[in-house]
Design goal:
The structure holds two protein chains of two kinds. Chain A is mainly beta. Chain A contains three helices and 32 strands. In chain B, about 15% of the residues lie in helices and about 40% in strands. Classes of the chains: A mainly beta, B alpha+beta. Chain A: InterPro entries: 6-blade_b-propeller_TolB-like, Cu-Rt/internalin_Ig-like, DUF7133, Quinoprot_gluc/sorb_DH_b-prop.
């Protein structure tokens, strides 16, 4: 009897084990942990690849380290930096690092593998000493300009007795705004441009916590920002020179700004000044702390999403994928989880593509929710069944998939649950949670028609109504490809700023 | 003074424990929970007796949104993950998943909002986790309710049911900290992938400096703070360099704690003058180069390049400051408050004129100042 049970268990084990392995082999993406150097507190501030294919990474306690993927060995390149939160490889012996007091050029000039020169590129911005004045970047445009972003200060912290830069109390609303993020030194809340001559130019304002800059293949600059006391959910901004993106504190550093309190402006006046996000990441649903946007320039090495943006998320085991389109002359589009539940950790702060096309992810917690270390996401060559793009039509949306889809499932309207809602631009009431985020006018949206293309790769969905200014959230049902691969990600949120016929 | 300082947290802990264990006249165990910055419950564990009536009062003292769920033993992570799986349904459900693993819950509270839960403690002894399931919080923001007749809890530092950071809670660690104060020269753990052998530096927030300070550790147990915000040496100390523990926690204002005794502070308006002994030059920080691991700072005074390298005096009683101004074409002055500083200066060139060392352009191209601290000399003799 006992023996029989055992035999059954053994047989069951083999029956279940074989398909599990098989399934794993068929997974489009797998996550690997990178061994970290002993003794390092691996709070990752930045990662990039050197021209020779080695990874260079900076960590919050000031180290810059180089990892050779072939030998799996780490070496120390530089040390002593102040909370570095961004790195860019210049050559095999030179990097740019964005640290707390400045953007710094770090070079190994004697060829011993360790940096000996730490040159200031720019420090032409203020420091109040508030712990929340983080600095991000740099990224480089095609003309050789560098872009960095400067975080606002937290009401949970103070201004130090001695500061760097001009002090402007109008950057903080002391009447009623003691709970708001503030900008009492230049250019907190700004994206800045560093021209090749080393001069720093104010570029765009209205950011709160712009922890992520990136360019797409067309040269558009994108910045992610954190949900805040004014903008109710986290955002991806398409950043253009001179524009204002919603958080009022930084307005005082606009050279044409009159000597008045920007916090006291009526909301409709600020609304008129403001440029809306290209994509909203619904709070608690898609992402709470999006980080760096990275364009897939791997030309297929990382799978089918060439030209789209991958964005780190700090609060859970997620990378978000963004697909954009131009509507009415402006970029807007959708976000969708790219990878969940595959062993990715939290705290996904920095991304970089290796020469082999794998996506490396550096993680951080630094007192918040997150994790430590570096992981690597590898495309196994098996195409995923996933939404490729979501695009707006005159009366609904087109969903195109990476593979031909099962016809019966794809044509079943029950597999598409739409709802819409919007986030109001408003000043947060005092004593409201800093991360409180209200979805307004949440309503299901009825589907009035479904069409599948002849190649079974595109589903056209007609909706009862389309309203600009809303997020269209789509929950997909049990869809699978023609060959039976289940859909990888089922929640997709389209930010509808403009209608097609406008 | 130190004793009192150390007793206060203990007393506080004791009072808190008393309050937590407070058994009202009606036999209800009252528990009060608040939120600390950095996604933490203030109290990470308490005990109740099986079947006891419990009134748990939760106040959100943070600036973010939080809920509170009490789960079955061992089910915290399952519940946290179930809350994440709610995806688009999460906000409307207060991120509280429908699950038999959730025993009791408080919905999302705004800052300064309080809500209470009254329940009868389970009859089965065990460790019942409580957790905030707002997305992202549940992995770090949790605690545990121990249910047992004896009121037992494991040793704090070995308690697997509380966040790891709280296992080293200062309150529980008071004895160890006494030791620490007794040996002030002892260095805190730096947690770098290399040994920190002087000279080395940290760019870091420091007291009495701009937010662009540089702390440099030298041999001979000497250290100094050079300020890149204003391009000058601010102060120097003898001892064990700095403790960055508070800074490296993140998420709150902090400065590096100096370990040792400050023996020198530059109290001049600015030490170097170019051309005019009374005019304070316009400075610009340029960076530094490591010369045998010692940083040589580079900055400009009215556009003229200055290089400053600071070495320890070999006997450990002061600093050797080497200046280079290769393009000096005017007289250079080095100002010091000779009359109210317990420091002696020895210059390799130039002449003292009142309180300023006067160097002709030729001399200014390269000169050394040896600063000897009289307090250090004196303490050595003692």
């Amino acid at each position: 009897m006992k023996l029989k049970t055992l035999a059954c268990l053994v047989i069951l084990f083999f029956i279940s084990a074989v398909p599990a392995d098989d399934k794993k082999a068929k997974e489009a993406y797998t996550v690997e942990n990178i061994p970290m150097p002993e003794g390092l507190t691996s709070e990752t501030g930045g990662i990039d690849f050197l021209p020779d294919g080695r990874l260079v990474a900076c960590f919050i306690r000031g180290e810059v380290m180089i990892y050779n993927p072939k030998s799996r060995q780490w070496t120390l390149f530089a040390e002593g930096l102040h909370e570095p939160l961004g790195i860019m490889a210049v050559s095999n012996s030179e990097v740019l690092v964005m640290q707390r007091p400045e953007l710094t050029r770090i070079k190994d000039t004697d060829g011993d593998g360790k940096a000996d020169v730490y040159e200031k590129v720019t420090d032409d911005f203020g420091l109040s000493g508030n712990y929340h004045e983080f600095n991000y970047g740099p990224v480089k445009d095609k003309k050789g300009n560098l872009f960095i972003a400067l975080n606002t200060a937290s009401p949970g912290g103070a201004v130090r007795p001695e500061i760097r830069g001009k002090f402007n109390p109008l950057g903080r609303d002391l009447q009623t705004g003691l709970y708001e993020m503030y900008a009492v030194v230049p250019y907190r809340g700004w994206v800045m441009k560093v021209t090749p001559d080393g001069k720093l130019h104010p570029y765009a304002s209205g950011m709160r916590s712009p922890n992520g800059l990136g360019f797409d293949q067309e040269g558009n600059l994108f910045v992610t920002d954190n949900q805040s006391d004014w903008v109710e959910t986290s955002t991806l901004y398409h950043v253009k020179e001179g524009n204002f993106y919603g958080h009022p504190a930084s307005l005082v550093w606009n050279k044409n700004w009159p000597a008045k309190n920007p916090f006291a402006l009526p909301i409709n006046e600020l609304e008129q000044l403001r440029t809306k996000a290209a994509v909203l990441f619904p709070q608690g649903i898609m992402a709470n702390s999006p980080s760096q946007p990275l364009c897939d320039v791997t030309a297929g090495k990382f799978g089918p999403f060439k030209g789209q943006l991958f964005i780190g998320e700090m609060n859970r085991d997620r990378i978000v994928r963004v697909m954009l389109e131009k509507v009415g002359g402006e970029l807007q589009g959708a976000c969708i989880p790219f990878i969940d539940g595959h062993g990715l950790r939290k705290g996904n702060n920095r991304l970089a593509f290796a020469p082999d096309g794998s996506l490396w992810v550096g993680q951080i917690a630094f007192g918040w929710s997150g994790d430590l270390g570096i992981q690597r996401i590898v495309y196994n060559g098996t195409p995923p069944a996933d939404v490729y793009t979501m695009t707006l039509t005159k009366d609904g949306f087109d969903l195109s998939f990476t593979q031909p889809m099962n016809k019966t499932e794809a044509m079943n309207p029950d597999n598409y649950k739409f709802r819409h809602y919007y986030y109001k631009y408003q000043r947060k009431a005092k004593n409201e949670g800093a991360d409180n985020s209200r979805q307004l006018d949440v309503q299901d949206v009825a589907i009035t028609g479904i069409k599948l293309s002849s190649d079974q790769k595109k589903v056209s969905i007609k909706l009862s109504a389309l309203k600009p200014g809303y997020v269209y959230e789509l929950k997909l049902g049990n869809l699978s490809s023609k060959e039976g691969t289940p859909l990888a990600n089922k929640l997709i949120c389209y930010t509808l700023n403009k209608l097609l016929n406008n | 003074m130190f004793l009192i300082k150390r007793l206060i947290p203990l007393l506080f802990f004791f009072l808190q424990a008393m309050q937590l264990m407070a058994q009202g006249n009606d036999g209800v165990t009252e528990v009060t929970l608040k939120v600390m910055p950095g996604l933490q419950f203030d109290v990470v564990r308490f005990t109740v007796k099986p079947g006891a009536l419990v009134k748990l009062s939760f106040t959100n003292t943070d600036d973010m949104s939080h809920n509170l769920l009490i789960t079955k033993p061992g089910k915290r992570l399952a519940v946290v993950n179930a809350a994440l799986q709610l995806e688009e349904k999460g906000p409307a459900m207060n991120y509280i998943p429908k699950s038999s693993d959730v025993l009791w819950s408080v919905p999302i509270l705004s800052p300064e909002q309080t809500k209470s839960l009254s329940f009868k403690a389970p009859l089965q002894a065990g460790a019942y986790p409580y957790v905030c399931t707002y997305p992202g919080h549940g992995f770090v923001m949790y605690g545990v309710m121990y249910v047992n007749a004896e009121g037992k809890m494991p040793e704090l530092k070995n308690d697997p049911n509380i966040p790891p950071a709280r296992q080293e809670d200062k309150l529980a660690d008071a004895g160890k900290h006494d030791m620490h104060h007794a040996h002030q020269q002892e260095m805190p753990k730096a947690d770098h992938p290399y040994a920190t052998v002087p000279p080395y530096l940290y760019r870091i927030f420091m007291e009495d400096a701009s937010p662009a300070a540089i702390a440099v550790s030298l041999p001979q147990n000497l250290s100094y703070c050079w300020d890149a915000g204003v391009c000058r040496l601010r102060y120097a100390w003898k001892g064990g360099f700095v403790d960055n523990t508070a800074l490296w926690k993140g998420h709150a204002d902090a400065t590096a704690k100096i370990i040792g005794t400050i023996f020198y502070r530059d109290k001049t308006t600015y030490p170097l003058r170019v051309g005019d002994p009374d005019a304070i030059p316009v400075t610009e920080y340029k960076g530094y180069r490591l010369v045998e691991k010692y940083p040589e700072f580079h900055y400009t005074l009215n556009g003229i390049d200055v290089y400053e390298l600071i070495l320890p005096k070999e006997d450990g009683k002061g600093l050797v400051r080497k200046f280079r101004i290769p393009d000096a074409n005017k007289e250079v002055w080095f100002a010091a408050n000779l009359h109210d500083e317990a420091v002696t200066y020895e210059a390799s060139a130039g002449n003292w004129d009142h309180e300023k060392l006067r160097l002709n352009p030729q001399q200014a191209r390269e000169f050394t100042l040896i600063m000897t601290s009289y307090p250090l000399v004196y303490s050595r003799k003692k």
